[in-house]
Structure prediction request, 206 residues.
Amino acid sequence: MVAIRSPFWHAFDSKNQAVSSGSDEFVVDRDFSVATILMVVGIWLTCFGPSNYPEVDMIGGIFHIWFGAFIGKQTMKTRAVFTKDSFELRTVTNKHLGLQADKGLAPKERKNYVLGTDNKWKYSSFVNWDFFPSVDLPILVYFKETQTPKEMQIKGSLGARQMDRRDNGQMHFFPAYANAKQLREQFESHRCQKIGPVHGEEFKKK
Prediction:
């Protein structure tokens, strides 16, 4: 019997199978959980309208579906890579995302959209890293580094400014489109500096 596979199979395969330029590199598996949750919530809001204001439910549903699709695209095209001395975000070189396994990786097409710097950071520059709300239910990945020159550092506003009272580096956040457990393992194995326990494990007995 011949097995029939959809050409879009690789779009939902968490294994990257990317071509690596060296044995010292580790490419973290992608994770579609955030994108999936956003789209499911969007469909639920749009179809079932839980509130007494259908227009609000519709707008909220459309926004969640759009944002989920955006995160899904980022999940397909971006890879978290750990090299011998740095952590970086790279772009999949496939011409058509999701139709084939990763053929190769290249530096991201655009610089960091906030700072205009390369998306590559030395492990020695790390001040902290974590997952929000927790490593078991990751939505955002956070890290702080001192590689960005102080005159270029942006402290954010409102809540972000309150979170950065130490003034000891540049904060970064990105959606958890990479496997959080593998990210943690790599951060720890490369001895990236960490302040306090990982979110979600504050009260676990050692």
User: Anything to note?
Assistant: The longest strand covers residues 126-133. The radius of gyration is 19 Å. Helices lie at 33-48, 54-77, 159-163, 180-189.
